[in-house]
Amino acid sequence: MSSAADFKKVNILGIDFAVVDYDLASSVIVDAANRNESFSVFALPVHGIIENHSDEQMKQATKTANMIVPDGQPVRWCMNHFYNVGLKDRVYGPKLTLHVLDKANPLGLRVFLYGGKSEETVERFSNFIREKYPNIVICGTYREDDPTVDTLTPEMVNAKRPHILLVGRGCPRQEKWISNNQGKINAAMMAVGAAFSFHAGETAQAPRWLQDRGLEWLHRLMTEPRRLWKRYLVTNSMFLYLLFQKKLGRQF
After folding, report:
1. Which of 14, 28, 99, 101 is nearest to 61 (CA)?
2. Alpha-carbon separation of residue 207 from 46, 76, 193, 215 (angstroms)
3. Pairing state between β 15-18 and 9-12
4. What is the DSSP letter of 205?
5. Which of 72, 223, 225, 234 could share a disulfide with 45, CB 3.0–4.6 Å?
6. How far does the chain reach from its first CA to its final CA, in angstroms?
7. Residue spans of beta strands (DSSP E) within 45-125
């Protein structure tokens, strides 16, 4: 297994992204999990970068995170363009989740699930894990009836003795929650967002050709136009503006 010291970071518009692929990232995470280290992992696309610029609490969260992986292709392109790191693919949160579970399975690690759109989502995601990774122990699940409150405490989580805590509450709430509990929960904590719904079979992922071209946002916009049109209009425009500022020499 690899240690947390085995990867480097580069700054993209104010966030230190890890220069990792799926194999290295999952190895670092599972190594920390196996040692019950309080280790925080965010998977941030363009949306996460913009949240970091507009939300002071999110900015503090990204500063304390142990590993932030480039969830979106545009983030990977920026890393390659500005730092020539040679990343061949992004590190997509739902896919990283599978790599982590795959490496955790032979070790029989314990996983706690926090989040999900509904109880049915959590149950389906749990069943997916049990069927595909039979050696993993799902030691606990929890979701907030009111998504605006945080009632799960470190004591409640630690009582279940998890190695891995998967948090699927949406960005930036999940990242803020993990940051607030950094050092308090003895597990690798991953902000995985849509992984719950994707692996529960409730939400279809974008076709691979759209993902490869950085157009996953377009697929999601077409799927949920009323909810997402404003987010992507503002987010994508702001991202292009910040990139222009960086090309002009602005420091973030």
Report:
1. 14
2. 19, 19, 19, 10
3. antiparallel
4. P
5. 72
6. 33
7. 67-70, 110-115
Q: Which helix (H) or strand (E) holds 216?
A: helix 216-223
User: Residue 166, SS3?
Assistant: strand
CA geometry: angle 34, 36, 41, nearest 5 deg = 90
Do the Cβ atoms of 91 and 28 come closer than 8 Å?
Answer: no
Count CB-CB contacts under 10 A for residue 238: 16
CA 57 to CA 44: how far, in whole Å?
Answer: 15
Reported in sequence order, the residue ranges of 91-230 that DSSP labels E, i.e. its strands, are 110-115, 137-142, 164-168, 188-191
- How far is it, in rounded angstroms, from Cα 246 to Cα 230? 24
Asked whether the beta carbons of 187 and 164 are under 8 A apart, the reply is yes
Given this model, what pLDDT does residue 3 score?
A: 47
What does the mean pLDDT of the chain come to? 91
- The per-residue pLDDT for range 210-237, each reduced to its tens digit, is 666 666 666 565 676 766 666 666 787 8
- Predicted model pTM: 0.88
CB contact set of 224 (below 8 Å; sequence gap of 6+): none
Q: Give just the sign of the alpha carbon dihedral 91, 94, 96, 99.
A: negative
Exposure on the CB side of residue 91, measured as CA atoms within 13 A: 26
DSSP run (H or E) holding 129: helix 119-132
The CA-based angle 9-32-161, given to 5 degrees, is 140
Strand residues in the chain grouped as ranges (E): 9-12, 15-18, 39-44, 67-70, 110-115, 137-142, 164-168, 188-191
